[in-house]
Amino acid sequence: MLRVLILCTHNSARSQMAEALTRDAAARLGVDLDVHSAGTEATRVKDGARTVMAELGLDLSGHTSKTLWDVPDAQNFDYVITVCGGAAEACPVYPGKTVRRHYPFVDPSGGSLDRWRAVRDQLATRFGAFVQALKDGRDVPATYADSPAVTVA
């Protein structure tokens, strides 16, 4: 089983949604993944994330914001993926076997539900492609830095 950590600054929105979407994609595609999310600091899971994920039938009610050190076996991940610049800069060093990736996403916080949905849909597309690459035995994308930004207010 491969272990995946999705890391963001507050573990309140993007990383929470990415965790649920990655687990869902793995279940649908039959890929055995142990998926976690964490932040460089803990706050709370935002209501916008809970709302737009519920629209897809994915329940975040059991999710809590946590730091890297709250995650089981925090130094033992096959993939560590940062989804915001702050987390990419603050991400700790991992052992040699860990593959680090940076997939940046716009922070939907403070935006409309349409903005939350747009970020959620980008996360679904990118993390779905990540899981599909694992299933196919291909290299996972190195980055999505060239992706278009969400423009919905």
TrEMBL record:
Signal peptide residues on this chain, from the entry's feature table: none
The UniProt record lists the keyword Nucleotide-binding: no
Coiled-coil blocks: none
UniProt xrefs under InterPro entries: Ptyr_pPase, Ptyr_pPase_sf
EC numbers for this chain: 1.20.4.4
MF-aspect GO terms: arsenate reductase (thioredoxin) activity
Segments forming domain Phosphotyrosine protein phosphatase I: 2-133
UniProt keywords, alphabetically: Arsenical resistance, Oxidoreductase
SUPFAM superfamilies membership: Phosphotyrosine protein phosphatases I
Record keyword Chloroplast present: no
Pfam families with a match to the protein in the record: LMWPc
Domain of life: Bacteria
Matches recorded under Gene3D superfamilies: 3.40.50.2300
Top-level EC class as recorded in UniProt: oxidoreductase
Name of this protein: Arsenate reductase ArsC
Phylogenetic lineage: Bacteria, Thermotogati, Deinococcota, Deinococci, Deinococcales
